[in-house]
Amino acid sequence: MKHLLSTEDLSLSNAIRILDTAEEMSAVGDREVKKLPALRGRTVVNLFFEDSTRTRISFEAAAKRLSADVINFAAKGSSVSKGESLKDTAQTLAAMGADAVVIRHWASGAPHRLAATDWIDAAVINAGDGTHEHPTQALLDAFTMRRHWATLNGTSSAGADLRGMRVAIAGDVLHSRVARSNVWLLRTLGAEVTLVAPPTLLPIGVGQWPCSVSYNMDETLEKGVDAVMMLRVQGERMNASFFPTTREYSRRWGFDDNRLRTLDRLGLKDTIIMHPGPMNRGLEISSAAADSHRSTVLAQVRNGVSIRMAALYLLLSGDTREPAATPAAYSTNAAYSTKESH
Ligand code: ASP
Ligand code: CP
């Protein structure tokens, strides 16, 4: 694996390998000294052409925990406003010695372009491109679900997939790169996915995706679900009216207080409520749902650091073995052995 651009082309072995490595990284996060020397001397550039809180900060934290140097670049306040192109911006940063470029861009396909051309020689990680993909978000979501699923089944998450897990992804699928990356990755991991949305917020061709589609949230809950992932209504990408009113939207498609009670009524005591953030509280998710014991919102953020450490580690440590090495092999790797604390 030289780049991490999408989950659509991520093999099962590479997905499991990233998730297992993230488990190891998460153990590092629990230690008093959270730093490892694995990427000492390497430089990670965070290249953000769109706003971000979680992704940018967690990539920075991940790189620092692996002892890499980090350069943060935000398009706002840079020479992009003077008309500098993606190519020139990327090459300028590469000239400063980037080993990995983490890129978020409003244009779908921008990270693929960086990876496919000879503009730069660095590993490219897609941190969200337009409405296309957000692979590390899907990986951190899968990591969160896998831990939950393993706990429920009384098994270990190491090496595990998500076969048998029922996941509903609900809301603004049309504009969501999180939904796309999750659908591909969850299919690879064997989960059963149902997209729940109004017809106006589903993309053309969704019938060909490897999931079912429902227009009715309550029916989906009634059928039984292990995780409900709420998507943000992406107002900044909407150039028309996609639903009658916000009130109507939250009543029909949002995870409101009534639906929280529905889970209890249906006896779905282990169902988790997920959201990638940022949340529109009161629109796609109520505060009671977001703050309930079922909510994994903050666990997702925490797990994001472990997933991003794993991605950076696997791309930059020169470990390009195929198929995946076993978790046991990783734990004996001196580069981040838990015995080695700094
Ligand atoms: N933060 C996620 C993204 O950038 C989800 C969202 O913004 O709704 O795709
Ligand atoms: N979930 C997510 O990508 O959040 P940010 O947009 O804040 O990075």
Structure commentary:
By secondary structure, the protein is an alpha/beta fold. The protein has two domains: 12-133 and 301-341, Aspartate/ornithine carbamoyltransferase (Rossmann fold); 135-299, Aspartate/ornithine carbamoyltransferase (Rossmann fold, 3-Layer(aba) Sandwich). Helices cover 38% and strands 13% of the residues. The chain has helices at 12-29, 54-65, 86-95, 110-116, 135-153, 177-189, 217-223, 246-252, 257-265, 287-290, 297-316, 327-331, and strands spanning 43-48, 69-74, 100-105, 123-129, 166-170, 192-196, 212-214, 227-230, 272-274. It has a five-stranded parallel beta sheet with strand order 7-6-5-8-9, sandwiched between helices. A four-stranded parallel beta sheet has the order 2-1-3-4, with helices on both faces. It binds aspartic acid and phosphoric acid mono(formamide)ester. Phosphoric acid mono(formamide)ester (CP) binds at residues 52-55, 128, 137, 276-278. Aspartic acid binds next to helix 6.
Major beta sheet summary: 5 strands, parallel
* Number of domain units: 2
Number of strands: 9
Order of helices and strands: HEHEHEHEHEHEEHEHHEHHH
Going by CATH, what is the homologous superfamily of the largest domain?
Aspartate/ornithine carbamoyltransferase
Question: Could you tell me the mean pLDDT?
Answer: 91
Q: How many H/I helices?
A: 12
Quaternary class = single chain
Radius of gyration in whole Å, from Cα? 20 Å
Architecture (CATH level 2) name of the largest domain: 3-Layer(aba) Sandwich
Parts with pLDDT < 50 across at least 5 consecutive residues: 319-342
Shape, principal axes of CA atoms: globular
How far do the termini sit from each other? Answer: 28 Å
Ions and ligands: aspartic acid, phosphoric acid mono(formamide)ester
